[in-house]
Amino acid sequence: MLRALFPRWLWRASFRADVWFLLFNLFASALLLGWTVISSQFISNTVAGALADIFGVRHKTGLNDFTSRSIVTVSLFLAYELAYWIDHYLSHRIPVLWEFHKVHHTAEVLSPITNFRVHPVDSVVFYNIVGLFLGTTAGALSYLQLGSPFAVGGANAIFVAFIFITVHLQHSHVWIAATGPLGRVILSPAHHQIHHSDNPIHFDKNFGGCLSLWDWVFGTLHMPERKRERLNFGVVYGIGAQRFSMMTGLSVTEAENARGDMFDSDRLETVAGKSMSMDDIFAAVADFCGGTPLNDDCTIIELVYSGTRST
Fold first, then answer.
1. Domain span at 183
2. In degrees rounded to 5, what are phi and psi of residue 267?
């Protein structure tokens, strides 16, 4: 099993970086930044107390224990997934958050420990958003006196099931694709591997953790093919191109310029819809960089340009 998940070809610089992130996040991150994470229990108690003050204390429901605990388990799981989607969406759409989140997307190969390739600030934002959503939901459920969720080792039983069934393979080379109606609900490993793709047609897609449900609801779902798709991972082409478009006011036309594993078109389209050649665009970028791509942003832009021209 280990040999299947960690084949010899995986052992390259990107994987070794994952190992260092794993060690840091296991042993140092919580000690350094744990105090910055808001307590979901505190929020839960506050919400339950506020509801009791406003509406009065409720009597226990007439539901049997299994039904009430099932409602709590499902509700908390859906609240977690919504919080996960919102955090992930904001991490891609807000530039300052992307600067921290892109550390995760620099992985050029995916393995189960890529899950730990996370900047500490990215983790702090994530846990605070999750704490807010889970605390608020738990407070409302506590006020309704529905009982406690089904748990395994203190974790939501549904979440634990997903960890063992799908989540542990999301960062891997194992292609398992949920398609059709199931693919609109379950975020399979293929869904998340597409999220890591450097192909612009896959940008800002599949933000879910265990479920693709919220991606389907909010229009960010990209359904994988049943047959393995050829993907490349990293930030040089895909994310570099996004930064390129933000800096120059140009946007990548996904339908025409994002085919295959990289760009295979020589033209981009401006926001106003005016077509420009890649040579014209790169000249504008060089002008923006002072004529020479010396700083980090411009170096990445140069790489993006050379990458598009080589395909």
1. 2-6+34-218
2. -130, 145
